[in-house]
Specification:
Helix content: 25-40%
Shape: globular
Bound molecules: ligand BES, zinc ion
Strand content: 15-25%
Radius of gyration: 25 Å
Number of helices: 19
C-alpha cells in the first residue's frame, strides 16, 4: 500500500468511525491531505450507504479477501467445503463479524486453530439468515465450514438431460442481486469488495470456470484453481461446471460452451474483440486482462451476466445473424460501468445498468454503425414506455426505494433505459467529445470503488455542473434521478429505417396492401420487432393468419421475434401458435422472454390453463429465479 493510499484509508476510517450509525450520509471530504496531486476521487465525499438487503456489518468489520475450497457433488446437488475470510476491523472495539447466508448448513467456524462460537439467526424469506461470529482479539481471518442446500437460490443444478450434450450434468451460479449468500457465507453487499482465490473440486470429466483468471489450456483433472486479484463485489462471484470447451475468438477474447454450440457461438460473437477495442479507445483501458464468454444452457435466467473476465450468456441470442449481439456489448460494457465502478446498494442499480445501457448503444454504433444504433435506441425507448405506462410512480424513479423489497421482484427497464436516456441528454447538452472525456474521468476516479447515487451527484457538481453551468442544472439532474416519468424535453431516439416499416404496417392495417405484398425482403430483425411491437393491441384471427402465412412468424427461429409474436398471439387468442408457445415456454428459461408470456396467459382462465400446463412441464428445468418470479401467474 502506498503512503497516499494509507493516508486515504486512515482518513476514511476516521470519517466512518466518527459518524453516527443511524445517519445515512456523511459529507466530510476524505483524502484532503494531498488534494493537489490526487485525482478527483479523493475530494469526493463517499456517502455512507444504507444497504437494506444485507445483514452484514462492514462498517465495523470488513471482509477483504476470500479463499474458497469447494467440492461439487452432483449427486447430492451441493457444494461443500470451506471459505476463509480475511477481514479488517473498522472500529477499535469491533468484536463480531456478521455475514449473510441463505439455506446454508454451517458446521463450524475456526480462527487460528480455535473453534469459534457462532450464531445463525432465524431466516428471513427474502434476505436469508445473519451469521454472527464472535472474534478473538488477535484474529484477522476466520474459516467457515459449510455446505449449500440443493435448493440454493443462486445455483442451478442441471441433469444431463437438461444440457445440449445430454451426457454430463451442469452447474452454474447467478449471484446478482442477493444470491451469493446462498452458496458462500459472506458480506453480501455491493459496497464490500473482496479479492478471491478458489479451489474447485469436480468430477474429472468436467471443467470448472469462474469470474476470475481462467486458463483456457488448464488440464481437465478435476481440481481447478482460480484467482481474482482485483477487488470485486460479492454479486460478481460466479462459478460454472460442465462439459465445457474453449474456442478463441481474438487475442483477448474467447468462448466456453458445450461442444455442440461452440462453433456457432464463436461465429455469432466474433466481433467481441472489436467491441473490446472500440470501448477501450473511447472509455479507457480494459482493466481485467482477458474477456471471455460462457454460453449456458437455455435455462439461464438472464440474457447475460457481467461476471468479470467471463460474462455468462444465454444461448437464446445465437440467432445466426448477429442480430442480438448488443447483449455482448452490454455485458462487456459492464467491465467499466458496474465491475470497475460499482453501485453501492441496489437502490443505485441505475449507475450500473443505465451507464451500461448508454455504453451499449455507443459500442453498437462504433462497431455496426449509426443505423443499427438508432434502431436499437428506438426499440429501447419503446420498452421503457411500456414500463412507464404500467409501473407505479415510485417504481419509475432511478434511485428507487427498495426498503423491504426483494430486488428480484422489482426488475424493470427503468434503471436501464431511463438511465441511458438521462446520460444521452447530458451528452447532447455538453457535446459528445466532452461527455466522453467526463466518462473517462469518472471511470478513473471511481475505479474499483462502490458508489451511491449521491456520490455520483457530488461528482457531477464538481465536474459537468461546474464546467457547463450554462447548459446543465442541478434541478434538472435531480428531476431525472428522483422523479417518476421522464422530464419534459427528454431526448427522442429516431430511426429512418423504421419509417418504411410504419408505412407498411399502416398500409396493411388500412387494407391498402396485403401482407404478402409488404416489401420486407430486406428487413432486419430490428425492423421486424418494430413492426410487431407496434401493431394495435387487438387483431383479428384473419389478420393474424394472414401475417403468419406471409411471414412464417410462428416458426421464427429468432427468439426475440418469436417472443413478440407469441405475445400478440396470446393477447389475441390465436390458437395455431399455441403448440409453438408451449414449446417456447418449456425450452427457454430466460425470464425476460418467458415472464411476459406467463403474465399475459394468466389474464384469462383459458390462458391460465395453458400457462399451468407449460409451467408444470418446464418447472424442473427452470432456474429457481424463473420459478419464483413466474409461479404467481400459474397459481
Ligand atoms: N447485470 C444484469 C443482470 C441482472 C441485473 C441480474 C439485476 C440481477 C439483477 C445484466 O447485465 C443484464 O442487464 N442483463 C440483461 C441484458 C440486456 C439488457 C442486454 C438481460 O439479462 O436481459
Ligand atoms: Zn446489465
Amino acid at each position: 500500500m502506498t503512503i497516499k493510499k494509507l493516508l486515504v484509508s486512515l482518513l476514511t476510517l476516521v470519517v466512518i468511525s466518527g459518524c453516527n450509525e443511524s445517519s445515512t450520509k456523511t459529507t466530510e471530504l476524505i483524502g484532503v491531505a494531498d488534494k493537489e496531486s490526487k485525482p478527483l476521487e479523493t475530494q469526493i465525499a463517499h456517502h455512507n450507504a444504507q444497504d437494506y438487503h444485507s445483514f452484514s456489518n462492514p462498517d465495523v468489520v470488513k471482509v477483504t479477501h476470500l479463499n474458497l475450497d469447494l467440492s461439487v457433488d452432483f449427486t447430492q446437488q451441493t457444494l461443500s467445503g470451506n471459505v476463509s475470510l480475511d477481514f479488517q476491523r473498522m472500529t477499535p472495539d469491533a468484536d463480531t463479524l456478521i455475514l449473510d447466508t441463505r439455506d446454508l448448513v454451517i458446521s463450524k467456524v475456526v480462527s487460528n486453530g480455535n473453534v469459534l462460537e457462532f450464531n445463525l439467526a432465524n431466516a428471513d424469506n427474502f434476505f436469508g439468515a445473519a451469521l454472527s461470529i464472535k472474534l478473538p482479539s488477535d484474529s484477522s481471518q476466520v474459516t467457515v465450514y459449510y455446505n449449500t442446500s440443493s435448493k440454493a437460490s443462486g445455483v442451478q443444478w442441471l441433469t444431463p438431460a437438461q444440457t445440449a450434450g445430454k451426457k454430463y450434468p451442469f452447474l452454474f451460479t447467478q449471484a446478482q442481486a442477493i444470491h451469493a449468500r446462498s452458496f458462500i457465507p459472506l458480506q453480501d453487499s455491493p459496497q464490500v469488495r473482496v479479492t478471491y482465490e478458489a479451489t474447485i473440486r469436480t468430477p474429472k470429466a468436467l471443467l470448472a470456470v469462474m469470474s476470475a483468471a481462467n486458463d483456457p489450456d488448464t488440464p481437465r483433472d478435476g481440481v481447478y484453481e482460480f484467482s481474482m486479484p482485483q477487488p470485486i463485489p460479492s454479486y460478481l462471484i460466479a462459478l460454472a461446471v460442465g462439459d465445457l470447451n474453449f474456442k478463441a475468438m481474438g487475442e483477448r477474447t474467447g468462448v466456453y460452451s458445450e461442444i455442440g454450440i461452440l462453433d456457432a457461438a464463436a461465429a455469432e460473437f466474433e466481433d467481441t474483440e472489436s467491441m473490446l477495442i472500440a470501448t477501450e479507445k473511447n472509455f479507457g483501458a480494459y482493466s481485467w486482462d482477458r474477456y471471455d464468454l460462457l454460453i449456458l444452457p437455455p435455462s439461464f435466467p438472464f440474457g447475460g451476466m457481467e461476471n468479470p473476465r467471463l460474462s455468462f450468456i444465454t444461448p437464446t441470442v445465437i440467432a445466426g445473424d448477429k442480430s442480438l449481439v448488443s447483449l455482448i456489448a452490454h455485458e462487456l460494457a459492464h467491465s467499466w460501468s458496474g465491475n470497475t465502478v460499482t453501485n453501492a446498494t441496489w437502490r443505485d442499480l441505475w449507475l450500473n445498468e443505465g451507464f451500461t445501457t448508454y455504453l451499449t448503444y455507443r459500442i453498437m454504433e462504433m462497431v455496426y454503425g449509426e443505423e443499427r444504433f438508432n434502431m436499437e435506441a428506438v426499440l429501447g425507448r419503446q420498452d421503457l414506455q411500456a414500463d412507464l405506462d404500467t409501473l407505479k410512480p415510485n417504481d419509475q424513479i432511478l434511485a428507487i426505494n427498495l426498503k423491504g423489497r426483494d430486488p428480484d421482484e422489482v426488475f424493470s427497464n427503468i434503471p436501464y433505459e431511463k438511465g441511458a436516456l438521462f446520460l444521452r441528454e447530458l451528452e447532447h447538452k455538453v457535446g459528445r467529445a466532452n461527455f466522453d472525456q467526463f466518462l473517462l474521468g469518472y471511470f478513473e476516479a471511481f475505479a474499483f470503488q462502490s458508489i451511491t447515487t449521491d456520490d455520483f451527484i457530488s461528482y457531477l457538481e464538481q465536474t459537468l455542473l461546474q464546467d457547463y453551468s450554462d447548459k446543465l442544472s442541478k434541478e434538472r439532474i435531480e428531476e431525472w434521478i428522483f422523479e417518476p416519468g421522464l422530464p419534459k424535453g427528454a431526448p427522442v431516439p429516431e430511426s429512418d429505417a423504421f419509417t418504411s416499416v410504419d408505412k407498411a404496417r399502416n398500409d396493411w392495417l388500412s387494407g391498402t396492401i396485403a401482407a404478402s405484398n409488404i416489401d420486407s425482403d430486406n428487413w432486419v430483425v430490428h425492423q421486424w420487432l418494430y413492426f410487431l411491437n407496434n401493431l394495435p393491441a387487438e387483431l383479428s384471427s384473419a389478420q393474424l393468419t394472414e401475417l403468419d402465412k406471409a411471414f412464417g412468424l410462428t416458426n421464427s427461429t429468432n427468439n426475440e421475434i418469436a417472443h413478440s409474436w407469441l405475445l400478440i398471439c396470446v393477447n389475441n387468442w390465436y390458437q395455431p401458435a399455441f403448440p409453438r408457445l408451449n414449446e417456447y415456454l418449456v425450452s427457454i428459461g430466460r425470464n425476460k422472454l418467458v415472464k411476459p408470456l406467463y403474465k399475459a396467459l394468466s389474464a384469462t382462465p383459458e390462458g391460465k390453463v395453458i400457462a399451468q400446463k407449460a409451467f408444470a412441464k418446464a418447472k424442473a428445468g427452470y432456474h429457481p429465479l424463473t420459478v419464483k418470479v413466474n409461479e404467481k401467474f400459474v397459481k
